[in-house]
Amino acid sequence: MRLLIKGGRLIDPASGLDRIGELAIAGGRVVALGEVSRDFSAERTIDATGLVVAPGLIDLAARLREPGHEHEGMLESELAAAAAGGVTSLVCLPDTDPPLDEPGLVEMLKFRARKLSRCRLFPLGALTRGLAGETLTEMAELTEAGCVGFSQADVAIVNTLTLQRALLYAATYGYTVWLRPQDAWLGGGVAASGPVATRLGLSGVPVAAETVALHTIFELVRSTGARVHLCRLSSAAGVELLRRAKAEGLPVTADVSINSLHLTDVDVGFFNAAMRVTPPLRQQRDRDALQAALADGTIDALVSDHTPVSSDEKTLPFGEATPGATGLELLLGLALHWGEMQKLSLGQTLACITHHPVRVLGAAIGSLGNSAGRLVAGGVADVCVFDPAARWAVRADALVSQSKHTPFAFETSGFELAGRVHTTLVAGVVAYERSLA
Amino acid sequence: MSSPTPTVPDAEALYAALLEGVRGLLGTAPDTALVGIWSGGAWLAARLHADLGLAGEPGVLSSALHRDDFGERGLAAGGGATKLGFAIEGQRLLLIDDVLYTGRTIRAAINELYDFGRPASVALAVLVDRGGRELPIESVFTAAHVELAPNQRLSLARADDGRFSFALEQAGA
Amino acid sequence: MLSRRNPQLNRHGELIHLLSIEGLPKAVLTQILDTAGTFLSVNDRDVKKVPLLRGKSVFNLFFENSTRTRTTFEIAAKRLSADVINLDIARSSTAKGESLLDTIANLSAMHADMFVVRHSESGAPYLIAQHCAPHVHVINAGDGGHAHPTQALLDMYTIRHFKGDFSQLTVAIVGDIVHSRVARSDIHALTTLGVPEIRAVGPKTLVPGDLREMGVHVFHDMAEGIKGADVIIMLRLQNERMSGAMLPSAGEFFKHFGLTADKLARAKPDAIVMHPGPINRGVEIDSSVADGTHSVILPQVTYGIAVRMAVMSTIAGNEA
């Protein structure tokens, strides 16, 4: 379909483009950017006056709960949520049921997603069979089936010898290993160690759970040469170690979740189970360090950490509730909120959810990497058109995702997010339109 | 609705009348014990006890634990504590209170009394009876009958030197 | 970013649930202590009953076993003329998979007016208070490691009875503080009532530095910790601490942190010794001290009934 988007503010964080202009799409690609010739006959025109036209968002961490956890989320609802959030490519975690440790499962998932044509799906394969941390998966086969990296999701590998060997094997093929820096033993608590957890009588997760794991991972990266992407940094101390590792030249990248970026342990309030997330929400100083690190590039990407949880799993005492929160539809608004607080330009703000995540994915997404997360003539037409000024309250009835639980719920936070998606295009096809919603 | 503002009764004058009334009652039944209803009645009983030269101390009864309006008002702070220095079982009692109105306070006080034993008899002497009874309760001696509007409240105060005075309060406007 | 009214208080600042001592104004605590004094005298009468909760149903929901605490709540409710129903949910319906909130909904359908809840998870009573009908009141009888507000209130009553003025006291809490809901509630109550010096005494594994944020001085040496103390609150040591690699043995703990007569000599001569019970003789406290002249452990139990009567009657009289 030949599509023309006119009158919008075109922003491409990678090139620094920021101007009012037009965008012409044909055959799933961007054919003209900025000035579009009169000859272009559009079958459909989208009026983007007052709106921002940006690359489709890239989310490096979302759980879709299929296969296996359908009572929490289905591919249909969660990919629709992604589209509603302006996300055109997402990386999903392997802790499904069964876990993504067989090429057949990965192929089926990708096939299902393609048929829905809402969002491009890039699965992470399980690093070990069954995520059990003992035997390796067939990483080459899984990559051929479409995996962009290998991960243990939230299951830490206790046996350091196994971890070292997994990294060494992945390094053979140049695959990236995505690891959560959380020590299995120290990380067993339900809230971040500190005055709030002490006062509330909740078992704590000390910062050492993250720093001990980071030291271990960095040592193994040094000795194996494997590329590692660190998932969900949560502490100022962790940020410091990451900064030194990057300065040293270690091949590591990192992300931070929307939850850790904006919230602290105080937000747990009166044992609000919506605040039960992993990693747990830490203190003010940690939040400040994470915000600054995302701004200066120490942390490469902002992720939604979308983890659908059913109501039965949340209306439980804090320690028994399942950790997780919905996030795909909040990624844009929370990125904009952070950018505003850091006094960044819109282009700088959007970088952490567009071309920086693509850089993390690197060669794994093949030629798509040339234009995903960017607006460039000849590139894929994955676009997110949004209204940066529109405010909306995060309420259950406003969310497309099957999971309605979020710490940013209007009932608790009392604040509205700014930044509402107007239209999302994937390969030039409309995946989501607010006017039809 | 315009009713003439009633004059505030002279508490000291009424006390003098109460003292003579109680003296008369005790004359016919000398083994009667005085018990004051907290708080105004307790003040009156204390002074009566001293002025009559009685031995020991008068009892104090709090109606707080047996009030019938707990569901609406809750447990009011500072409702006073019952203090009875003598056995109730088989004892003749004279209850003393400042203002008798609906009769509910006296009903609650008598219930409280029964937690301690079965008295031989219970009589009531008050400073002021303002009518408006909602229960079949009566005093054997009343120093004065006063008419008040439902939204008016008469309360007894005791100065540092022990002198009594009445205050008339209007609830709402 | 977030703000929420204290769920224990209604719009007028009156107590409708007792979930924790945190956030309760001094006036609320003092009023409960004063009311408890009135109820103490009720326990000395021939007729040990007042009709304040007549016609009300109090359901004891103990998800964690405790015969002692449950019994004192039962006695307190009955002295207020309430009907009491005891439910040992611990292993029954939750074992059959019934969720906590389903249990509450079923019980509310049986016209419960008040739930007394003990649960092993911190925060469980808050969840219950949030989801039960508006006229139902919730009293926390102990939730995980978080709070045991009625114990703290009876501890404060005991201290006030024997020591009078809070503003000049040094109070030492000794033992497994990190796991103790009693300690947390005691610390909040002592702070709110104006006790100037509160000390937490124990080995580093049981008394973390974080506690300083709650306004206590941390001591890892017993002698220093109870020097000049007016009140010593000893906490129960549980066996799990040994198996969880927090302590090597009860014997070593007793040697360094157990309260014996000669350690007690370092406190003030008229110091009182308290314990929430049940006591482990020879582990946290020596028999001679537990049974000695400084010990007020038995009066604590008596005050416990009056305090619980005060809490129940105060709460029942306030509307949500």
What does this structure look like?
The complex is a heterotrimer of chains A (437), B (173) and C (320). Chain A has 437 residues and is an alpha/beta fold. Chain A is 30% helix and 23% strand. Chain A has 14 helices and 19 strands. In chain A, a hairpin with a 4-residue loop joins strand 1 and strand 2. Chain B is α/β, with parallel strands linked by helices. In chain B, the strands form 2 sheets. A 5-stranded parallel beta sheet of chain B has the order 2-1-3-4-5. The radius of gyration of chain B is 16 Å and the shape is globular. The two termini of chain B are 13 Å apart. Chain C is globular, with a radius of gyration of 19 Å. The mean pLDDT of chain C is 91. Chains A and C meet through helix 5 of A and helix 4 of C.
- Beta-strand percentage of chain B? 25-35%
Main sheet specs of chain C: 5 strands, parallel
Can you give the mean pLDDT of chain B? 90
| Uncertain residue ranges of chain B | none
Beta content of chain C: 5-15%
Number of helices of chain C: 12
Q: What general outline of chain C do the C-alpha atoms trace?
A: globular
What proportion of the residues of chain C is helical, as a percent range? Answer: 25-40%
Number of strands of chain C: 9
Overall mean pLDDT of chain C stands at 91
Provide keyphrases for this structure.
heterotrimer; A: 437 residues; alpha/beta; 14 helices; 30% helix; globular; B: alpha/beta; 5-stranded parallel beta sheet; two-stranded antiparallel sheet; 4 helices; 7 strands; 26% helix; 26% strand
Short summary:
Chain A has helices at residues 75-84, 103-116, 139-145, 160-173, 195-200, 208-224, 236-248, 258-262, 284-296, 311-314, 331-341, 346-351, 355-361, 410-413; strands spanning 3-12, 17-26, 29-34, 44-47, 52-55, 57-62, 87-92, 120-123, 125-126, 150-151, 176-179, 191-192, 204-205, 227-230, 252-257, 301-303, 383-392, 417-426, 429-433. Chain A is α/β, with parallel strands linked by helices and 437 residues long.
